[in-house]
Write a structure and sequence with these properties.
Number of strands: 12
Distance between the termini: 18 Å
CATH superfamily of the largest domain: NAD(P)-binding Rossmann-like Domain
Bound molecules: (2R)-2,3-dihydroxypropanoic acid
Strand order of the largest sheet: 8-7-6-9-10-11-12
Number of helices: 12
CATH class of the largest domain: Alpha Beta
């Protein structure tokens, strides 16, 4: 029987995952843009599956050149550059790795929240510099007993809420429609959630639908004692408004793993001492990246055993 041909579209798919795919499939790619272009021109008609990340463009024009495509498996939670509408129109399933990475990203969200509210980066510098011998470190802000607002309650938002509950926090959330059988208070509007939160965690998808959703008015509704945590996508927040609010003290603190123009982070943000910054580390552990790769392989294996 002829092997099933798949295309590794993104160079972000790890070598171990590509090796596991090569044991099962005829694998094309990865490659740079001209190489992918050449592969699609020569073999587009027999490509039945794609392994990719949300960072590689998979648009309507490319999809039109892949008439045999049956499945796309994404090695990330974010589907940023994937035209989900065009896939849905053709009934092509799209899987992502959000189940595999939810706990890891949730751990980081909790870490950023605690670090920002207890000012642990500045506290570390206080000890290292010897300043402790002269001055006590200023008081931080509690986590226990506080309200945590989740903007988005998918796999990642739910994993954060479970951890927050275990820490004695009170979750509430904002989604377009209430989540069935969810006991947390629901808000249909991001500003209303912000006004009802001490900690506001962005855990919704990026993309055009949510670009700028956390605007100046949402940030203003948080206030000087509140903390904003973003482990989702930088584009969801009005970043200049966020920097202004943090610099003026109108927003208390922030823990940020994602930025509007990664890896460029505005100097004004890097200079603030009421922020904790991470270089998009959400899923970045050996264990979780391995599990994400395995989830891509498992998804594509469906092409070998059609039901
Ligand atoms: C993803 O996979 O989209 C997340 O950004 C992980 O950090």
């Amino acid at each position: 029987m002829r092997p099933v041909t798949i295309l590794v579209l993104s160079s972000g798919v790890p070598a171990a995952t590509i090796a596991a795919l090569a044991e099962r499939f005829d694998v094309l790619g990865p490659g740079d843009a001209p190489e992918i272009e050449a592969l699609v021109s020569s073999h587009g008609a027999r490509i039945r599956g794609i392994a990719t990340t949300g960072k590689a463009r998979l648009d309507r024009a490319l999809l039109a050149r892949l008439p045999a495509l049956e499945l796309v498996a994404c090695y990330s939670a974010g589907l940023d550059k994937i035209d989900t509408e065009a896939l849905a129109e053709r009934g092509i399933p799209l899987t992502n790795s959000s189940t595999a990475l939810a706990d890891e990203v949730a751990d980081l969200a909790i870490a950023l929240m605690v670090m920002a509210r207890r000012r642990l980066v500045a506290a570390d510098a206080h000890v290292r510099s010897g300043a402790w011998a002269k001055d006590a470190f200023p008081l931080g802000r509690s986590v226990t007993g506080r309200r945590i607002g989740l903007l988005g309650l998918g796999h990642i938002g739910s994993a954060i809420a479970r951890r927050a509950e275990a820490m004695g926090m009170q979750p509430r959330y904002c989604t377009r429609r209430p989540v069935a059988e969810c006991a947390y208070p629901h808000h249909a509007d991001a500003r209303a959630l912000a006004a009802d939160s001490d900690v506001f965690v962005i855990a919704c998808p990026g993309g055009t639908a949510n670009r700028g959703l956390v605007d100046r008015s949402v940030i203003a509704a948080l206030g000087p004692d509140a903390t904003l945590v973003n482990i989702a996508r930088g584009e969801i927040v009005d970043e200049p408004a966020l920097v202004e609010a943090l610099a003026s003290g109108r927003l208390g603190s922030a823990g940020l793993d994602v930025f509007a123009d990664e890896p460029d982070v505005p100097l004004a943000l890097r200079r603030l001492d009421n922020v904790v910054l991470a270089p998009h580390l959400g899923s970045a552990t050996i264990e979780t990246r391995t599990a994400m790769g395995e989830s891509v392989v498992r998804s594509l294996e469906r092409l070998l055993n059609p039901v």
